[in-house]
Amino acid sequence: MKGVPQDWLRGFGLLFFARTVLSMVIPNSTHLEAILEKYMNKNDEWWVSKQRGKRAITEGDMHLILDLHNKLRGQVYPQASNMEYMVWDTELERSAEHWAHTCLWEHGPQHMLTQIGQNLGAHWGRDRPPTFHVQAWYDEVRDYSYPYPQECNPHCPFRCSGPVCTHYTQMVWATSSHIGCAINVCYNMNVWGMIWTKAVYLVCNYSPPGNWWGHAPYKHGRPCSACPPSYGGGCRDNLCYKENGVQRRPAPELEETNYIEPEPQPEPRAQEPRARPLPPTPSSNDNVERNEVVSTEQMCQQMDCETKLRDRCKGTTCNRYECPPGCLSSPGKVIGTGYYDMQSSVCGAGLHAGIIDDGGGWLDVTRQGRKPHFTKSYKNGIQSVAMNRSANAFNIFTVPVKAVTCETTVARFCPYKKPARHCPRMYCPRNCLHETRARVIGTQWYSDKSSICRAAIHAGVIQNDSGGYLDVQPVDKRRQYSGSYQNGISSESLQNPSGGKAFRVFAVI
Ligand SMILES: *[C@@H]1O[C@H](CO)[C@@H](O)[C@H](O)[C@H]1NC(C)=O
Ligand SMILES: *[C@@H]1O[C@H](CO)[C@@H](O)[C@H](O)[C@H]1NC(C)=O
Ligand SMILES: *[C@@H]1O[C@H](CO)[C@@H](O)[C@H](O)[C@H]1NC(C)=O
């Protein structure tokens, strides 16, 4: 019986065969050049063969990765009776290469994910052999409890006491006998919202795929006592082994006879990082598990007393502003009463409307579309002027603050509406890390079914220990949400959601 994939356990609803959550490593940049050299030295074997359209990885790295897999597969505890020897597969290598070249920090391509297993690793900085990632995947074993047959009734439990165990279970999936990996250097790679100028990206594809829900990765028993008949009883280093079956399939030779060496392609143009405030620099922390992320990006824009709304109402975040104290003495020009012309000073209009006082503070702005004329008045110490021309207008509201619980979702609390709406500023309690039933779907952009407070911890906007204030910006739905492990929370992936909207969380500083 074909099971449901393991990630289903974490509620990866729509993906029939969701892949493992990404693994990532953040070393420092000291020895970056060395590893990059290796992949960029145009005289190097890898580069030369790459130019001939052959390899996505050096021969040496291929052996390192493959041998480490077989070594670890042969040494699993409890012992495996049906673990198959892994062989290199150039088709898998090619598909991994194709994906590594997208430089997308997520699993893919989508259409292949039902047919292959996939583990990913990326790092920048310190020179790392690719086996560093392979070992990190394997090390998830410490959180994994092997399900013995007596527990598998009717399905085996999946017990993982850490954030992720599916890299490990894919590596030691008995029937996943083929592997192919590729390494690519990616420029300006977006890793969970952080832009890595140069990242080394490792993609390993496995076939047949593992991580079937309700199944143990392998059978427990005397090594090689339950090998598939096709192995003819062969056994080597505790692995089902067939003399002729393990010849590494050589890369299919291209038609070299008429093959014309192409001009070396210029290095693919790095993707431009999205225009957004610089993300926090990845720390020298190279601990795979912790992956601490801090975000200080604010939705609220800080204004000077005289700044006009027109000059600061850009993009989608033109709704919440912070005014400094002391604007009564220099309020700028204020046009209108009740609603104000876009040329008005935001803080001046805020004072006039009585939303803030001379102590400064926060205010929300809503655009009102065109108004035929604007009237003058003297209010709260501010003289506003009239205007007879029709012009775009805005009005001003206080920023409400609401305390929410760890379970509160944007869908229930403040769903997206067109045009953009204001959500109250929220206050999250402490200790939402413990509310593990409250889902978090996505990274940076979250599905509106996610817990707001847990998404905020995941995004690094608030901390578990203290809770705190945050701003939420509901946005229209997104085609896909990618899961990640950050700040102690493993978020879910979701592709092509059938309904629901999304949101972002922002720091309040
Ligand atoms: C980076 O790593 C190297 C060794 O791998 C170490 O000597 C150096 O101090 C590290 N630099 C920083 C900034 O952590
Ligand atoms: C605005 O227009 C009205 C008539 O349409 C006029 O009476 C008034 O004086 C005008 N005000 C200004 C400030 O131009
Ligand atoms: C989360 O915060 C609570 C309350 O401050 C604390 O008791 C708990 O240990 C924290 N949990 C983690 C995993 O840090």
Automatic annotation (TrEMBL):
Top-level taxon in the UniProt lineage: Eukaryota
Region (Disordered): 251-289
A GO-annotated cellular component: extracellular region
Gene3D superfamilies: CAP (3.40.33.10), LCCL-like domain (2.170.130.20)
Subcellular location field: Secreted
Location of the LCCL domain: 299-394, 400-501
Extent of the signal sequence: 1-23
InterPro entries for this protein: Allrgn_V5/Tpx1_CS, CAP_dom, CAP_sf, CRISP-LCCL_domain, CRISP-related, LCCL, LCCL_sf
Keywords: Disulfide bond, Repeat, Secreted, Signal
PANTHER family per record: CYSTEINE-RICH SECRETORY PROTEIN LCCL DOMAIN-CONTAINING 1 (PTHR31331:SF9), LCCL DOMAIN PROTEIN (AFU_ORTHOLOGUE AFUA_5G08630) (PTHR31331)
Protein name: LCCL domain-containing protein
Organism: Coregonus suidteri
